Give the backbone structure.
Amino acid sequence: MRIARYSMAGQDPAFGVVELAEDGGGHPDSVSTLTGDPLAGPVQYTGERHRLADVRLLSPVIPRSKVVAVGRNYAAHAAELGNEVPGTPLCFYKPNTAVIGPDDIIVPPAASQYISYEGELAVVIGRICKDVPAARAEEVIFGYTVANDVTCRDLQEPDKQWSRAKGFDTSCPLGPWIASHLTLAEASDLVITTVVGGEQRQHGSTTLMIHPIADLIAYITSFTTLLPGDVILTGTPAGVGRLEPGQEVSITIDGIGTLTNTLVPAAAAGSHTTTTGDSTK
């Protein structure tokens, strides 16, 4: 099942189940509206259906408390930036104010002149959990989505810690929806491809993670409690690079979908703001 969060003119955001024409349903891509939030409890279909082209997709989840990201979880990516592979997961936080959705614009802080993309698999947590054994990690996963760990590379090194470089507003695009039907084994064998301005930049597989998904959940919950809707970013494959203002970046994960955003310079963003993860343009 693909769970989306969307809006229409004059209406509050809603959750729905996405049905694609490629699934063989005999109808255009559509979204069927749900009552309430599937991360908060049982939901039902309302009977309302919209063409997917007629709605605006939002970030499929607004983390209730945090995004926990993992750095250098692919050996080739660590090597391309001249870093050693960490012996244990290298974790950092992004605030929920960093989250934006599909087609929203990325607005870097004015202090940065070097913005980099990082295509990643994101894990959406479905229940409150602490000290989860790796063998039971699948029990706490609601589903998976696509993420872009946008980074101010020129701030990352001098700051020595990554709050400003990776936690700025709009630094965590998520979408286009949550794939709740994937098993842990399936999510551990997915191809990630990043295209910038029509040129392929990244092409890797989640099989190449140094610390696999279950181990990440076990490690992260050993020091922090995860809440329903919290998100784990699992690291990026090799091929990261610079985004220029005006460039569009599209990250595709097979079995999930494609997340597309465009970088704009801070001076050109105008009245752009991010409120509870939904940007206004």
